[in-house]
Amino acid sequence: MSANLFLVNYANADEQNLYDDGAITVEETFIDDEIFTQIQPFLVEKEILESKNAPDTVRITVLPNDKLLEVENLLTSSYLKKIDDLNQKVLDKNISDKIIDLGIFSNILKIIKRKTQEFHNHSSILIMIG
């Protein structure tokens, strides 16, 4: 299942309640089936408020902050393996597809790094899969 990975700034009604209405996408990237399969065991569903003044909730799928380093290490390892495979098959006719795969890994790792470095203290900014 291919999807997108989003770095989203959710509005917060208070310290613990986030709501979907007014959420801002900070950054997003495509995530292919291979990478989705790798990170799927780390994903969790989270319930957030639909809007600030309504009791209705929405379920979102997120990559929890406490798993980001583990996922980053996993994807970095996969990325390095892809580079090694690419070096072994320089004359492969599908080389452009392999280079694009590296770009997908790079974009995802960039979002994870951004969350862990730039937004590490922001509990309302989450990595969401959709």
Low-confidence stretches: none
In helices, the fraction of residues equals 40-55%
Number of individual domains: 1
Mean pLDDT: 89
Strand tally is 5
Radius of gyration: 17 Å
In what order do the strands lie side by side in the largest sheet?
2-1-5-4-3
Briefly note the structural class of the backbone. Answer: alpha+beta
Task: Please work out how many helical segments DSSP would assign.
Answer: 3
* Strand residues, percent: 25-35%
Shape: elongated
Order of helices and strands: EEHEEHHE
Report the major sheet: 5 strands, antiparallel
Distance between the termini: 10 Å
Would you kindly provide a written description of the structure presented here, covering whatever features stand out?
It is a single chain. The protein is elongated. The protein is α+β, with helices and mostly antiparallel strands and 130 residues long. Strands 2-1-5-4-3 form a five-stranded antiparallel sheet. 40% of the residues lie in helices and 32% in strands. The longest helix has 24 residues. Helix 2 packs antiparallel against helix 3. It has one domain.
Indicate the topology.
Layout: E1 3-12, E2 18-31, H1 33-39, E3 44-49, E4 57-63, H2 68-88, H3 95-118, E5 125-129
Antiparallel strand pairs: 1-2, 1-5, 3-4, 4-5
Helix pairs in contact: 2-3
